[in-house]
Amino acid sequence: MNTTAKASTGGNTLYGGVTSRRVTVRDLAAAKRRGERWPMLTAYDALTARVFDEAGIPVLLVGDSAANVVYGYDTTVPVTMDELVPLTAAVARSTQRALVVADLPFGSYQGSPQQALEAASRFMKEGRAQAVKLEGGHTVAHQVELLVSAGIPVMGHVGLTPQSVNTLGGYRVQGRGEAAADLLKDAKELERAGAFSLVLECVPSELAAEVTEQLSIPTIGIGAGPSTDAQVLVWQDMAGLSPKVAKFVKAYANLNETLREAASSFADDVVQGAFPEERHSYTA
């Protein structure tokens, strides 16, 4: 058991708790009933996924944000299933406890429920994910219904939906003013359709609190204030590796500077002939 993680949360049973098996959607529902908050991070490779798993993070999201932080795209729109499925498989293979959620990329589920089922099935079979996430409200309710009926747990996502950045007119706060009622309606529709949890991105804190109170499923905030049941960040943002971040990000380290210093030190040693030393070399 990760005793450090468990102690830091006062003995909660989700973060730093159950280690003999993977976290399940039932565990998340139980945490909601207990009023227990929990963390979620993104992960895209085996090494960092293993670190986060050992740290006790109960849910890891292989996000379509890989488009930005792994593949270098300007938005999440271009990333494909062929690019995300191998990342999902790497995360799943290298973890033992975390619930691994795969993001369905743009264009893989919007067309029809059947298209969504085919895409989600691939992430579950090839990527070994335990759940999938998709963006949108009432417009994807039928997709959620079919996936859930087929045995695929679905995490919803409303508010700022990055895959719709071109219609939203940029990365803007959603749900202000009269739009709040529509967002709440979408949230309830996704719950009715069978989603096991819901990401709320870039929405006013007051609205996020209302949605969290009215839903029986856990809410996961990212730029949605402190009242959601869980919080998620892109791990590179959380660790201070990303050069530019949104207002809602808190950096818990400065890996950008750490890696820059390490690379510079390595380069200096090579140029000066200080590396490799004898202890780094083999003899005949």
Automatic annotation (TrEMBL):
GO MF term set: 3-methyl-2-oxobutanoate hydroxymethyltransferase activity; magnesium ion binding; methyltransferase activity
Database matches in SUPFAM superfamilies: Phosphoenolpyruvate/pyruvate domain
InterPro entries: Pantoate_hydroxy_MeTrfase, Pyrv/PenolPyrv_kinase-like_dom, Pyrv_kinase-like_dom_sf
Catalytically driven reaction(s): (6R)-5,10-methylene-5,6,7,8-tetrahydrofolate + 3-methyl-2-oxobutanoate + H2O = 2-dehydropantoate + (6S)-5,6,7,8-tetrahydrofolate
GO biological process, any: pantothenate biosynthetic process
Positions bound to 3-methyl-2-oxobutanoate: D64, S65, D103, K133
Cofactors (names): Mg(2+)
Pfam families recorded: Pantoate_transf
Localisation: Cytoplasm
Pathway stated in the Swiss-Prot or TrEMBL entry: Cofactor biosynthesis; (R)-pantothenate biosynthesis; (R)-pantoate from 3-methyl-2-oxobutanoate: step 1/2
Binding sites annotated in the UniProt record for Mg(2+): D64, D103, E135
Listed GO CC annotations: cytoplasm
Main localisation: cytoplasm
Bilayer-spanning residue ranges: none
Gene3D superfamilies noted in UniProt: Phosphoenolpyruvate-binding domains
Cofactor note: Binds 1 Mg(2+) ion per subunit.
Keywords: Cytoplasm, Magnesium, Metal-binding, Methyltransferase, Pantothenate biosynthesis, Transferase
Family: Belongs to the PanB family.
Subunit field text: Homodecamer; pentamer of dimers.
Biological role stated in the UniProt entry: Catalyzes the reversible reaction in which hydroxymethyl group from 5,10-methylenetetrahydrofolate is transferred onto alpha-ketoisovalerate to form ketopantoate.
Protein name according to UniProt: 3-methyl-2-oxobutanoate hydroxymethyltransferase
Organism of provenance: Nocardiopsis aegyptia
Lineage: Bacteria, Bacillati, Actinomycetota, Actinomycetes, Streptosporangiales
Gene (UniProt): panB
